[in-house]
Amino acid sequence: MSRNIEIEFKNIVTEEEFQLLLRTFHISKKQFFSQKNHYFDTKDFALKKLGSALRIREKQEQYELTLKKPADIGLLEINDVINQTEANMLMNHSVFPSGEVKDELHKMKFPIDEFFLYGTLQTDRAETEYKNGLLVFDHSFYLGKEDFELEYETIDRDKGEQFFNELLEKLNIKIRYADNKISRLFKVIQGKKES
User: Fold this and answer.
1) Options 2.40.50.140, 2.40.320.10, 3.40.50.300, 1.25.40.10; CATH of 2-194
2) Comparing 57 with 5, which gets the higher pLDDT?
3) What residues does each domain of the chain span?
4) Known Gene3D superfamilies for this protein (predicted)?
5) CA distances (Å), 182 to each of 21, 23, 46, 169, in order?
6) 27 Cβ partners below 8 Å, 6+ apart?
């Protein structure tokens, strides 16, 4: 169980730019690990409307339930470590495990029995320290799509933004707004419903 403020900057990059970043920071294939994010919301996207998100992250047979919600600066992230049985009960039967995430959703007056699994996004990820923060290289796959993204996690919003933008400029990478992963997944789901 943990609570922390997440301040991060994201940029969608092309595959060519992604390879340039990996070469620049000497990131090898061996440094990548795989994780799956299973995303939840209500049928009417109640969490999304509040700028919040709910997911189970599955990594090396470990499971973490995370609620992200807007904070004064960045996002407040509430995490509960759960076991595989609890993860399966939530994904398959909408049964919430006890913990801080469930308590917070009750405080937010959400009918927790209305959450269901919307979709899963798999990410191959590598990380390296950079200027008192963490650079994250993500190659994500979801619903027949894939994308490449650079993230920079920091504790100082102003300096972090400056360092991130300077890095993009130095490598001649265009600034491209990156929706968070759950929004990218939802857009594809909504696009499929509309077509």
Assistant:
1) 2.40.320.10
2) 57
3) 2-194
4) Hypothetical Protein Pfu-838710-001
5) 24, 28, 13, 27
6) 21, 126, 128, 137
